[in-house]
Write a structure and sequence with these properties.
By secondary structure, this protein is of the alpha/beta class. It folds into 2 domains: 201 residues, Rossmann fold (3-Layer(aba) Sandwich); 136 residues, Hypothetical Protein Tm841, Chain: A,domain 3. The chain has 14 helices and 14 strands. Strands 1-13-12-14-9-10-11 form a 7-stranded mixed beta sheet. Strands 3-2-7-8 form a 4-stranded parallel beta sheet, sandwiched between helices. β4 and β5 form a beta hairpin. α7 packs antiparallel against α8. The longest helix has 15 residues. The chain starts with a strand and ends in a 6-residue tail after the last helix.
Length: 356
Amino acid sequence: MSSNYSGEQNTGLEGVSSDADEATDEAVVLEDVVRVGRAFQQRRTCKLIVDSSADYAPAVVHRLGIEVIPFTYVTPDGEVEDDLWQQTDPHEFYETLRRNPDLHYTTYAITPGQYAEVFERAAGDGIPTIYLGITAGLSSSIHNARQAAEMVRANHPGFELYVLDCRCDSAAGELLAIEVMRQATHGLTAREVYEWAREARYFIHGYFTLDGFDALAAGGRIPPAAATVGSKLNIKPELSYDTNGALTLRGMCRGRKKALRAIIQDFKENYAHDTSLPLAIVSTDAEKDADWIEREVRRQEGCADVTIIRSQVSPILGSHVGPGMVALIFWGSDRRERLSLTDKLARKVRGQGTSA
C-alpha cells in the first residue's frame, strides 16, 4: 500500500482541519498510522513534539496528533515559516530554484526562546514530554532545545522533559516518530520510550542522490571546483548520513540511473525485511524517480505490499540540496556496526555511545 499525501491537512502548526479535510485524510492516510494516533491520544501517557525538518507527510502529522515546531527560511520576500506545504506548492518552490540557479535561501535554527515557549506549554499540561529533534550533524537547533529544556526543568521541578537528537535526516525522523508513538501505546513510560528511541534511531537508514552538486557547493559543503567538475562529467553522488547524522558520501556514479540503482542496492543489503514497518520515499520535486524507486522496492521479495509513505522534502532541507533530490528511507541493520575500527575508537574516546 502506497500513500501519497497531497491534501491540505492540519499539521499541528495551526488550527484544526475542517470536516472536508477530515474526510480527505481518512481517504489517503495510512490505516496503521490512524490506529497508532488514536491509541496514543487515548492513553496520553506522554506528549511527543517534533520539528518540521523531518519532511512529514501532512496527513501523518495530523493523524498522529503531534506538535510540530516550524523552522524558518528566508526568501527574497522575507521570512517564511515551514508549514509542511500548507501555503506553498512544492513544485512551484523547486521550479523557482531551477529557474534561478543563483537564488539560495537561508535557513535558521529554532531559537532557545521558541523551544522554551513550546516546552513551557507542555509543562503546563503536566504530561511527560519527548522532543525528537533534527540532528546536530546538520543544525545547531538541538543544542538550543537542550538549553531551553534545562530552563524549563528548573522552572518546573519534577517535570519529565526529554530531548533526543534523532541522529538521522529527513523522513527518517518521521519513521522514528511513528514507532515512538506505537511504543507509547504499548504501555512504556515516557522515560522508557525515550530510551527505546535512543537505541532505535541507529536502525533507520537513508540513501539519496542529487541532481547536481551546485546546492552543496553554495552551502559550503563541497568546493565550487568539485561541483563544476562533477557537472561536466555527469557525476551523480549517492549520499547517506553517519551515526552522528552528518552527510556522508557513499559513492560517485556516472549518470542518474546508476545512482538510483546504487540506492536500491543499499536497500537490498540493509533492509530489515520487516514489512510491518513503513518505508519513506521523499524528493525535491523528482516524482518520476521517486516512482521508479517505489517500483523497484516493490519488486523485491516480500515487498509488494509494504507501506510506503511519499512526501516532498521541506524547504528547510530542500534549500540545501536543491531540486531533483530523491531518497529512500527504511528500517534496517544497526548502522553502528558499519563503523570502522578508528571510528569506533573515536566514539569511545568522545563518549558518544551514551550521548543523547
